[in-house]
Amino acid sequence: MRILVVEDECLLAMNLESMLGDLGHLVVGSAGNRQEALSAANEADLAFVNVRLSDGATGPEIAEELRAAHGVTVVFTTGSPEMVSDDGAEVVNKPYDEEMIASAVDHAAAAHRRKLRAESLAEIRGPAAAI
Amino acid sequence: MSVLREPHQIGDVIGSMTEQTTSFARSDGLALGNSRTARIILETEWSGTALGNPRDWPNALLVTLRLVLNTTQPICLWWGPDLVNFHNDAYEPMLGNRKSDAIGRRARDLWPDVWDDVSPLVEKALSGEATTLYELPLMVTRNGYREKTNWTFSYSPVFDDDGHVAGMVNIVMEVTETVTTRQKLSEAYAAAQEHIRVQQELVEQREALQAELSHRMKNTVAMTQAVVSQSLRHAKSIEEAVDAINGRLVALTHAQDLLVKDSAQRAWFRDVVERTLEPHRDHGHRFHLQGPDVVLEGPQALGLTLAVHELATNSAKYGALSVEGGTVSIDWSLDGHKLSFAWKENGGPPVVPPSTTGFGSRLKDRIVPGYFKGSGKTVFEPDGVRYLLTGQLVVDETQSAPSLQAEGFP
Lengths: 131, 410
Known about the structure:
The structure holds two protein chains of two kinds.
Chain A: E1 2-6, H1 10-22, E2 26-31, H2 34-39, E3 46-50, H3 59-70, E4 73-78, E5 90-93, H4 98-130
Parallel strand pairs in A: 1-2, 1-3, 3-4, 4-5
Chain B: H1 2-21, H2 36-43, H3 59-69, E1 75-79, E2 84-87, H4 92-95, H5 107-110, H6 115-126, E3 131-141, E4 146-159, E5 165-174, H7 176-234, H8 238-261, E6 266-268, H9 269-277, E7 287-290, E8 295-297, H10 298-318, E9 327-335, E10 338-346, H11 359-371, E11 375-381, E12 384-392, H12 402-406
Parallel strand pairs in B: 7-9
Antiparallel strand pairs in B: 1-2, 1-5, 3-4, 4-5, 6-8, 9-10, 10-12, 11-12
Helix pairs in contact in B: 7-8, 8-9, 8-10, 9-10, 10-11
C-alpha cells in the first residue's frame, strides 16, 4: 500500500512512518497541513490523518478532500476519539502500537479495494445502462 | 324598596347588639365610636356645609360611617353630590400630608393630583358598578420614612335611604407583603436559575478541560513512545538507549514545564534554550546566547528543546562541552516569520565527523526542522561543530503575547 501520513507532530509522524515501513508499506509523503497533504495525495492509496493539526481540527476536512478528489481511503489517528464523527472511517486512538496500525491498514486496504472494484464495475455497467 | 328593607333590618340588629356589648357613648347622638377620625367628625362644624347638621344626616350615611369608622381595613367614604370625604384611622397613611383637613373636603379638592385618573372609577361606582384595582404601588410615609407599598383598591357604590347611589366607598387592602414576598420569590428563583446556569457552565468547562487534559496526556504518551522506540531502534547498546531515552524525556519534560506556566501553552525562545542547557551548566561561562524576544507555540518549543538537547549532549560527549574552557555561541534571529537558529562550538577538541548517524542526528537534522517547516544542518567544522536551523515561526493569531508577561516572563 502507498500511504500518506498527515501529522504535524513530526516525532509522531516519523514514528508512524517507521511502523508503516516495518509493515512493508511505502510512505509516499508526510504532511503537516492541508496544502502539503493535498499535494501528495495523488500518489497515495491510504492516508493516516491526525484529527487535530496545528491549524485546528482540520483533519476531518482534509480527509474529506482526500477522499472526494483523490479517492484516498482515510484512517484517522487521534487522542480525542470523540472528535471524530462516525463516517465509517477507521479510527486509531493515540497512543497506538504497530499491531493497531497493522490492523487499521488491513481494514482500510480492504475497504479501498472494495471501493475500487465498485468503481470499475460502475464504469463497465455505465455505458450498458445508457443503451 | 324591598331591597333596602333588609339592610335596614340588619342595621337595627347590629345596632342593638353594639348597645348591649360595647355601648358606644351616645352623648353625640351619632354613635360613631371612639376612633381618632370619629372624634374629628364630631368636632367638625358641619352646619355651614352641604351636608348640614349631622343630626339631620340620612340614616344610610350614619350606618355606612359606623361601618367605615369601626373597620381596621383602610376605607374612605365619599358622600353626596360633592363627594365629601370621610375615612377611618386605618386610611390615614394613604393621605400622607393631606391628613390634617381631609375630613369634610370635597374628594376632587383633596386629590387634585390624581383626580383625572380616579374620576372614571368614581363615575363607574356612582353609576352602580364596582371596580377593583389590584396591587397598585404607592409611596407612603407612616413609620417616619417614605416606603414603597402596594394596595388593592375597590371602588363600590354606597346607597342612600331610598336606594339611590349617594356616594362610594373605597375599600383598601394592603398587599405590600404579598407583593414583596412574590418579588423576593421571583428574585430567588432567578438567582437559583442563574446559579444553575453558572454550575452548568462550570461543569462544561471542567469537562472541556478534562477532555483537553486527556488529549494532551495521550499526545505526551505518544511522544514518549516515539522517543523510546526511535531511540531503541537506532541504539548500539541498551545502556546507550537508556541514557539517550532518559535525557530526551527529561528535556521534553523541562520544556513542558515552561509551557504549562502559560495558559496558551507557549514559551519564550530564550527560556526554552536556557532550560534545556541547564543540566550542562557548570562553573564556567560556557554559553553565549543572543537573540530577540520570540514566543514559541507548544510544538515548536518542544522541537527546539529536542534539537538543543541533542546538540548539548553530543557536545558534552565529544565537543566543546567535553573540555574545560570550551564554549558555545547560540544565536537566533527573526525576520518577519522567518526564524534562524545557529549553534557554534568553540574551544573543544579537534572535530571528527561521526562515521554513522543515529537518531540524535535525525532528530536535529530532519525531525526538528519539520516543526519549523524548514531545514536543519550539522556541519563538522574543524574548530567546532556548527548547527543551523532555519524555518518559519508558527504564530497563533488568536492569542496575544500579554499572558506570557502576566506569568512573570521578561
